[in-house]
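[job 4417] fold queue: 2 targets
>>> target A
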Amino acid sequence: MKTIQELYDFTDKTIIISGAAGAIGSEAARFLSSLGGNIVLADLNEDKVKQIAVDIEKETGNATLGMKTDFTDETQIEALVTATIEKFGNISAVVNNVGWGANTPLWESNTEKMVDAYKLNTLGAYNLTRLCMPYLKKENNASVVFSGSMVGNTPSPEFIEYSTAKAGLLNMVRSMAVASGPEVRFNSLIIGTVDNGASSEEAGYTQEMIDNVVKGIVLKRRGLPEDIAYAMAFLLSDAASWITGTELTVNGGGVYKTKMPTS
């Protein structure tokens, strides 16, 4: 039986993380680097992602690479994969974390907005994974993790573009898992409401909305970026070597409302 240190040893493993300039992506990069991994951080925000890569390398002493990448542009994704192989020579795991969605009511979207949401939240993850597959297949316990959302598996008419794209992502991951058998593992996180700074406000959440959600959460707090990073590390690790094609829900127990009538 392996020790906990052996199960979570990412030495010589190269991990690509998309959306790595955000709160969750950067925390995942920091944690996985602290466990020995070579981390490739990719994000549309070039200055921020490169600075985070430099900071993490200084903190942990393990090599990093920071690259600007637009995950709606297949050519840029190809460049990311090529640069990763040139620097590290292997790809052991992928964290498809990039994604974003605005508060858009059900009947207030249109074709362009729906397609744009799909390109960013679903198609970008597909293309990055597809391009990494030849390298992942060469690795022991290769694993890919996807950042899903609770809006992707529950009715969410307030976020119709984002929720529809995330719903498609979940089934895509299941398909990848059954098609890849023992070669590569694929799993999703169903992420609840996370305190990720300004991103919540940009997505249309007001403080009143956040407070109302927190009141109903079983653990009575929003998630922290490290809560999600720890779950990602688990699914990538040898501790999860017999887990594929599933969704791990990380949401503080969810929002509970009693089924009993109140007086």
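>>> target B
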Amino acid sequence: MPEPRTVHPGESIQRALDESGPGARILLGEGTYAQSAWIRHPGVTLTGAGAGRTVLVPGDGGPPDVPRLHDAAEDVVSGLTVHGDAVGDVRVEALTVRGFSGAGVYAHSAAGVSVHEVEARDNAVWGIYLRESTGCRVTRCRASGSQYGGVALSFCPRSGAEITGNESFANAFGVFVDNSSGAALRGNACHGNAIGVLMLNQVYEGEPEGGVRDCLVSGNDLYGNVLAAGAEPDGLGAAGPPISGVGLALIGTHRVVVVDNHIHDNHPGGESIMGAGFVMGSSADFGGDDVLDCHVLWNRVTGNTPLDYQLGADLARQVFAANTAAKGDPPQAPGWRR
């Protein structure tokens, strides 16, 4: 294993990464770094002194050839970019990435990216954004203040992703599973967003195949999501329909297991196409599918307005058991009790 290389404020993170090459261990000292960086070699570990102690903010714009954030303008800059088919087994940990015009951490076409104890704060588009990648882990991170997802997994059809123990707040979507399958969401706290967790299957023109299948949503605390998204042309979640006051939504998903979650005290702060703390709905009208073969077990769904649950699905194609709620649609759904 190579000896770690230490970088201090005022020194170039990018130069250290490029000179150290594959397998590099880069330690970032305490302080603020006005720069962005592109991790383009496999096996790299980038470690700060701790969230709030090592801070990356916009500065030099990074290397001129850094791959830009998907679907973003050329002048949009992300804090840390992990990109490339040969780039894998990368670990980013113990730092803050703040105030970038793109994503805080952006991984594309990578394998085995781990983001651990990272604070992604006030990055304009995404907090931690993993796209077309496999085997990624986001653990014990805090993501807030992004226009779209705090933590997002996008077009990862065999993701094998683990999103565990994170806190996501003040975003349009706390955690967004967008056309990605095989993901496990465990023990996350999502609050103060427009929607806590959104799992969405729909097909976009020119994008990879869609679908959300074979996922686990377990032991999450989804509460107090009151912001409004999708109502203003340049506002929070501008590209989507209006959503507000939702804890968890399964839209067009297949074989998702939702077990032992607490979904509570979510109240719309604006217009919303969804009307409950927990929502199941079809995406067939916009290129997706109906919700099929999901298991919803031992969840506590309470104190939400206007409803606790809204089940826009063929109930005979799902399994519901031992869930608690006060009011829902349909009102006498099997597997739900007061």
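[job 4417] complete. Note on B: The longest strand covers residues 91-98.
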